[in-house]
Amino acid sequence: MRTNSRRQLVAGNWKMNGDKALVEQMQKQLAAASLENMDVVICPPFPYFGQFDSKLKLGSQNISEFDSGAHTGEVSVAMLKEFNCQYVIIGHSERRADNHESNELVALKVAQVLKANLTPILCVGEPESVREDGTLFDYIATQLDAVLLKVGISQFAEIVLAYEPIWAIGTGKTASPAQAQEVHAFIRGHLAKQDDKIAANIVILYGGSVKGNNAQELFSQADVDGGLIGGASLNPEDFLSICQAANQ
EC number(s) in its UniProt entry (predicted)? Predict the structure, then answer.
């Protein structure tokens, strides 16, 4: 049961999906909704940033660790700020796997985002093999510690965390509310070893096959503060139902 005052957040990660029609549909759907008690962020592919109006908060799915220069295909924080981007997803499991992003590179990117006064959505999470072999908490602590070493605990006041069990992304499997709560509580406790107040106030999202029919139970857990939504964020009605669950 939630008893804290942390404001819930739902971020839609479109990944390499979407088109202009979806941008228009999503804006209409959310503009007509009453969601005063939570925050919504849309993270579309880069070409669609300019299609959104200023009413929606935008997030990027990635960022370069460099300010500028000869880095073909990369995007800088300065470019994102020109499009009113406020959030940046860092360390998503797909980027860690597909693009070989190490914990150290993730930490560099978090530092780059913080330097630009944007909000990192820092993703951590385990593959199924790690959960099964019993090293889950050590695995997640290592991911967190790389960023703590780079930016320090004080900077976590400006970070949003997202726990994404890799085995539940796009598979239809979902961590049970109790499983999600257990890991979120561990994350908060791990940060509390360095700063109780920052740990108590940090927003921790759950990401892993969240849908309209399971969102409310997940979001009602004491340490689950919303969701990082993949597939369901591509359907405006489904995404709205998840946002409404957070709004309650």
Answer: 5.3.1.1
